[in-house]
Structures are given as structure tokens and as C-alpha cells.
Design brief:
There is one protein chain. The protein is mainly beta and 401 residues long. Helices cover 6% and strands 44% of the residues. It is built from three helices and 33 strands. It has a five-stranded mixed sheet.
């Protein structure tokens, strides 16, 4: 074969590689694997490529699949699923029913794209599977009607977890506390009573490197580990606060599991033992009590922000729990990481670029997010050199490469 023919085949192969999916906090770690990103920003922030207005009320982050963007919003009490192209143009829009309109109104969980389907959990507890090509509903289940579940005070806030053919969902309640459904049909695979708690706004995480692969999540009063093959409860650890709220997905690495919450609870580090059959406490600290902002593990350190309103940005040694710094320069908020940098989106609307170093909270640049509405609670997203920020009614795309 001639050289030109080989080059053509290589170029063609590169073009048909499927686009990477971005779901909740990328892959639930909050770490984005992109490189070559800007190490500083001009005054006023990076270039704003486009913004899409009219999403309605909501806190859900953007996700991606097949070169498209997915996000939800609520208008007049109804939830809508939006599909945008990479230039921010609306491709499709689908009403999916009643959304949460009681307190902190709007959509919550992130849309999960997988294998030609889209999955979301509404604030009212409805789990819906859409065909990604036309947004037709393939199947749906309701936490209360189908599983005898219970909605927490501020509505359901879960991004369902997909592992193989299983979709993991937490209706709560005494009988079907955590369930596995076949992702393409919604048919039950197993049901776990777990500890019978109410849901606590937590999106579960999968741990696959133990002898017993498992799902870990936090419910109103416990951290639980469940055998993903059959729903058997492997272990549980008491973990609660006065509101039974634990919105942060546990952070896993090196056989250790960091679980963080607010309202005086702080963080506990659990070490999995006996191949995942049991856990033991490695350390505990009140100094990192993240409410909704999560954390990222980079090497031997974990970074994140403590309690909203009075908290501080922290760096903690992963294995020991030693606090290396606490900094109150910026209000607390959500954190993600990419290319050796932290991206800190504060509850007051500042977007900051911070060097990921255990020595200090090293702010390189920041800018205010002025478009949009209501609270700055949605987690930012990075995809192909673009930083996406959702603020209520608006989604903005910034060039950071």
C-alpha cells in the first residue's frame, strides 16, 4: 500500500473513534484527563465562545456523548431535557414531566449518556431512560410508586450509576433501598434493603479493583458497600448529620474511600479490607466538611472546600488526614481538576484557576460569572479544551486551550 493510502486510513480511523462521554464529574472523580490547557487566564477570564440562555431553573451539570451536550432545566414546574451541539445551538428539547418546585426549585441530577441512551433522575424521583437519537422515552420508574421509596427534603438528587448492563439507583425506603435495573429495559436485576435509610442526595460510585466489586453510596444515616453482582450488603458505617444530607460522591483510590459531609460531620477515610468484605477507619477530620462541592484526589493529596458560608479551601494528605493548608481567600464551592490545576467555582460566582500544590492555595487567575440566575451550585465541566459553567438559566462555554 502506498504511503498516501496508509495516511488516509489512519486519518479515517481517527475520524470514526467515538467521542468520549462526560457524565457526573467526568467519571465521578472530578478529574478531567485533558492536557495542554491554559496555565493562566487574561484579566476578565478566558474567551467566552458562546452562551445558551433559557434553560430555566436548575443545578444540573452538562454532560456529553456522541459530540453533543446534554443538560436539564425547569420551566413552570416542568422539567426539560436539552440537547445542544458543540457550538451551543439547540438540537432538541424534550419535556419529561413534573420537576422539583418546592424548595431550591429546579433540576438536580446530571444526565448520564450511555450506549445510545440517556438516563436522568428528576427531583420528584422519576428515573427515565431516553433514546438519545430522538429523546423518545424507552422506560421509566418512580422511586415512590415502583419501589416504595422516600424523597428527601429537597427532592431527589442522584446521577444514576451504570456498570455494564446494570443501572444503580437509590429509591430509599425499607425494602428497595438501592436497586440494580437492566439499563435497556428497566427490569429489576437485584434489590438491596441496605440499611433502610432515606436517600441523601448522593450519587454512587463503583469500586472494581477489590475481590468483591461493589457499589458505594451514602444514605441518610450510613455509608454502605453493596456487592454489585447480587445486591448483598457487604458493610455499613454510621454517618449522619442533623439534616441527613450527604451530597458528595465518595472519592476512591488505593483501596481507601473518602466520605465527606457538612453540618459538623467532616470527613472519614475508610480502608477496604478482606477484598472489600469489610472496612476499617483510617482517619477522621472535622476540618474538611464539604457540603456539595466534592473533592479531587491528585497523587497523595486531596483538595476541596469546607462548609459553605464560613468554610475554607483545604489540602489534606490522603493517607494520614493531615491538613496542610486552610485558606479563606475565596468562598467555598465546587472543585474539579485538570492538567495540574484546580478549577474552583465558588458559591458567590467566582471562577478561579488554582495551582494544585500542597504548599498553599495558589490562585493564578479568577473572574466573576455574571450571566445566569440564582445559586452558583452546578459543577463546572471540561471537554475538549472548553470549560462549561452552568448558572441557573444559562450555560456558558469558555476557551481554556
Amino acid at each position: 500500500m502506498k504511503r498516501t493510502g496508509i495516511l488516509y486510513l489512519l486519518l479515517f480511523a481517527a475520524q470514526i473513534v467515538p467521542a468520549q462521554n462526560i457524565e457526573w464529574r467526568n467519571d465521578r472523580t472530578g478529574i478531567y484527563r485533558e492536557t495542554g490547557l491554559l496555565k493562566s487566564w487574561p484579566e476578565g477570564g478566558p474567551e467566552l465562545l458562546w452562551h445558551f440562555d433559557g434553560l430555566g431553573q436548575g443545578y444540573s451539570s452538562v454532560s456529553t456523548g456522541s459530540g453533543k451536550l446534554y443538560i436539564t432545566g425547569m420551566t413552570d414546574g416542568t422539567g426539560y431535557l436539552y440537547v445542544l451541539d458543540m457550538q451551543g445551538r439547540l438540537l432538541n428539547k424534550k419535556a419529561y414531566g413534573k420537576e422539583w418546585h418546592i424548595s431550591y426549585q429546579g433540576t438536580r441530577g446530571t444526565v448520564i449518556p450511555d450506549d445510545g441512551y440517556l438516563y436522568l433522575v428528576s427531583g420528584t424521583g422519576t428515573l427515565i431512560c431516553f433514546d438519545a437519537s430522538d429523546l423518545c422515552v424507552v422506560w421509566q420508574k418512580n422511586a415512590i410508586d415502583d419501589f416504595g421509596g422516600e424523597l428527601p427534603k429537597y427532592g431527589m438528587n442522584e446521577s444514576p450509576l451504570i456498570v455494564g448492563d446494570k443501572l444503580i439507583f437509590t429509591p430509599g425506603g425499607k425494602e428497595h433501598n438501592v436497586v440494580a435495573l437492566h439499563k435497556k429495559t428497566g427490569e429489576p436485576i437485584w434489590s438491596s434493603k441496605a440499611m433502610g435509610d432515606i436517600p441523601s442526595y448522593c450519587s454512587p460510585v463503583y469500586i472494581g479493583d477489590q475481590a468483591i466489586p461493589q457499589v458505594v453510596t451514602m444514605t441518610g444515616h450510613h455509608i454502605v458497600g453493596i456487592d454489585i453482582s447480587n445486591g448483598r450488603l457487604l458493610w455499613s458505617v454510621p454517618f449522619t448529620n442533623r439534616f441527613f444530607e450527604h451530597p458528595n460522591t465518595p472519592v476512591y483510590g488505593e483501596g481507601m474511600l473518602l466520605c465527606s459531609s457538612s453540618y459538623g460531620v467532616g470527613s472519614v477515610m475508610l480502608r477496604l479490607t478482606e477484598g472489600g468484605k469489610k472496612v476499617e477507619e483510617a482517619w477522621r477530620t472535622p476540618d474538611f466538611d464539604s457540603r456539595t462541592g466534592h473533592a479531587v484526589k491528585l497523587g497523595d493529596y486531596v483538595y476541596g472546600a469546607g462548609d459553605y458560608g464560613k468554610g475554607s479551601w483545604c489540602c489534606i494528605e490522603w493517607k494520614t488526614g493531615k491538613v496542610l493548608y486552610k485558606d479563606k481567600t475565596l468562598p467555598a464551592g465546587a472543585v474539579i481538576a485538570a492538567d495540574g490545576m484546580l478549577y474552583c467555582y465558588t458559591e458567590k460566582g467566582d471562577m478561579a484557576l488554582v495551582r494544585a500544590t500542597p504548599e498553599k492555595f495558589d490562585i493564578i487567575a479568577k473572574f466573576p460569572v455574571t450571566s445566569g440566575t440564582e445559586q452558583h451550585w452546578a459543577h463546572p465541566v471540561i471537554y475538549k479544551g472548553i470549560l462549561y459553567i452552568r448558572h441557573g438559566d444559562a450555560l456558558m462555554a469558555y476557551k481554556i486551550k
